[in-house]
Design goal:
The structure is a single chain. It contains 18 helices and 13 strands. By secondary structure, it is of the alpha/beta class. It has a single domain, classed as TIM Barrel (Alpha-Beta Barrel). The chain is globular, with a radius of gyration of 21 Å. It binds 1-deoxynojirimycin. 1-deoxynojirimycin binds next to loops. The site of 1-deoxynojirimycin has 12 residues, from loops.
């Protein structure tokens, strides 16, 4: 996902390397801080046509060639191999596992009757995790709206999605909430909206120059409906389930940390605009009750307004903020683009072009200071809410090597920046490496890899092999130091 955004927004990547804390260990983090790893349903489960599951719009997008001809029909076959995978997690000493539920596996018609086989799969997975001492952190929506709802009323473009999402969330709270305490409603709400409705590079593949879509209006409508759907589910949880289940409902966004290209007033303002569009667009309404001023000003009448009643429901509806962060960018004021405002500036990507450059295609730069500053920003701009780092990890080519030294260097540096932020008062509660296994990737199919485990796609059993990073992460969690890999 990130790549498509990068190419459109012409980002410059900066190499702010170097871990700040040397020789830190698990014991330096609070005991109730969790270290985990994650996957998402369409990327992990496979069994796309089995036991009553119906397609999501991610299936449709992949099958129409959206992801380099690849799809998640089989993926890592987690639907059949979850026991084996939980055993690997347990052997590693993983404390928590973040996964998502496939809405169309649980409720094949999008609303109405439950699929008993789907219910059984998620009950089994959750029980398996808990029996192995691994805490389940569950995402309800990870880019996979049931296709049937997309066909019926345009999915996230319609306010009808709010009731359907609330009803789906209620099924999950009711059926699994006795064992699940951490719920995230929507993964990467901001980037899902940009990829799916501005650029058309991810499901449902809509944009002005695509076969359908309107990049200048739809993302704002979708973003608004996502916030309403999230708050409907979160409010329901508070009113009906929280007292008994004692859990938390949060929201997730993707964050690039923008650093001003120069110390000029213009570039400093440009960096703040990136934060306002990328972070504030979603988090300001949740914490402060409205969109940021600069978003309202630049987007004008295309931005839906919150009614007083909606403000009431949305503000304060997130128990925690989930962040997916991978690297830092430069923000550069771009007067030629800005001067187009009011006339030709018609889509959201253009609204955000205050950054220029390009990103390396195969591997992310190791810029841990960006995570530190992101966590500081959450503290200062939003009153230090509880935060989970839901995704952070290194992308490499999927070339079969198990010696993934760049991933180890990356994790070691970024986890140390989390420790720095905690020592400076951040309310961060957990860190989830992305991802546990090399599975189906959002933009690259099976060409890139984020996993701690390599999955051999040429083996009919899809055998898993631990990489150096799996050993390193396990060593860090269990023995409490990072000395296995010391520069
Ligand atoms: C974003 C998404 O949440 C996830 O689905 C994707 O695989 C990773 N980040 C890496 O691109």
């Amino acid at each position: 996902m990130v790549n498509a955004m990068i190419s459109t927004l012409f980002l410059v990547v900066v190499h702010f390397g170097g871990a700040a804390v040397e020789g830190y260990g698990r014991a330096d983090f609070p005991a109730d801080f969790v270290f985990g790893s994650g996957t998402a349903a369409y990327q992990y489960e496979g069994a796309a046509f089995e036991d009553g599951r119906t397609p999501s719009f991610w299936d449709t997008f992949a099958h129409s060639g959206g992801t380099e001809g690849a799809n998640g029909d089989v993926a890592c076959d987690g639907y059949h191999k979850y026991k084996e995978d939980v055993k690997l997690m347990s052997e590693m000493g993983l404390e928590a596992f973040r996964f998502s539920i496939s809405w169309s596996r649980l409720i094949p018609a999008g609303r109405g009757p439950l699929n008993p086989k789907g219910l059984q799969y998620y009950n089994n997975l959750i029980n398996q995790l808990i029996n192995n001492g691994i805490e389940p952190h569950v995402t309800l929506y990870h880019i996979d709206l049931p296709q049937i709802l997309e066909d019926e009323y345009g999915g996230w473009l319609s306010t009808k999605v709010v009731d359907d999402f609330r009803a789906y969330a209620e099924v999950c709270f009711r059926e699994f909430g006795d064992r699940v305490r951490h719920w995230t409603t929507v993964n990467e709400a901001n980037i899902f909206t940009m990829g799916g409705y501005v650029q058309g590079t991810s499901p449902p593949g809509r944009c002005s120059s695509c076969s359908k879509g309107n990049s200048s209006t739809e993302p704002y409508v979708v973003g608004h409906n996502i916030l309403l759907a999230h708050s409907a589910a979160a409010r329901l949880y508070k009113e009906k389930y929280k007292a008994a289940q004692k859990g938390y409902v949060g929201f997730n966004i993707y964050v690039l940390w923008p650093v001003p290209y120069t110390d000029s007033r213009e570039d400093i303002a440009a960096a703040q605009r990136v934060k306002d569009f990328l972070i504030g667009w979603m988090i300001d309404p949740l914490v402060l009750g409205d969109y940021p001023e600069v978003v309202k000003k630049n987007v004008g009448a295309r931005l839906p307004a919150f009614s007083a009643d909606e403000v009431e429901r949305v503000k304060g509806s997130s128990d925690f903020i989930g962040l997916n962060h991978y690297y830092t960018i430069l923000a550069k004021d771009n007067p030629s683009i800005l001067s187009l405002q009011g006339g030709l500036l018609t889509d959201m990507a253009a609204d955000m072009i205050y950054v220029q450059g390009d990103a390396p295609p195969d591997q992310y730069p190791t810029t841990p200071s960006g995570l530190y500053h992101t966590l500081e920003y959450m503290k200062q701009a939003y009153g230090n809410p509880p935060v989970y780092i839901h995704e952070n990890g290194q992308k490499t080519r999927r070339n079969g090597t198990l010696l993934d030294t760049p991933r180890v260097e990356y994790l070691r540096a970024f986890i140390s920046s989390v420790l720095d932020a905690l020592r400076n008062g951040s309310n961060t509660k957990g860190y989830f490496e992305w991802t546990f296994l090399d599975c189906f990737e959002l933009l690259d199919g099976y060409n890139s890899s984020f996993g701690l485990y390599y999955v051999d796609l040429d083996d009919k059993d899809l055998k898993r092999y631990p990489k150096f990073s799996a050993h390193w992460y396990s060593h860090f969690i269990n023995t409490g130091n990072t000395l296995l890999f010391q520069k």
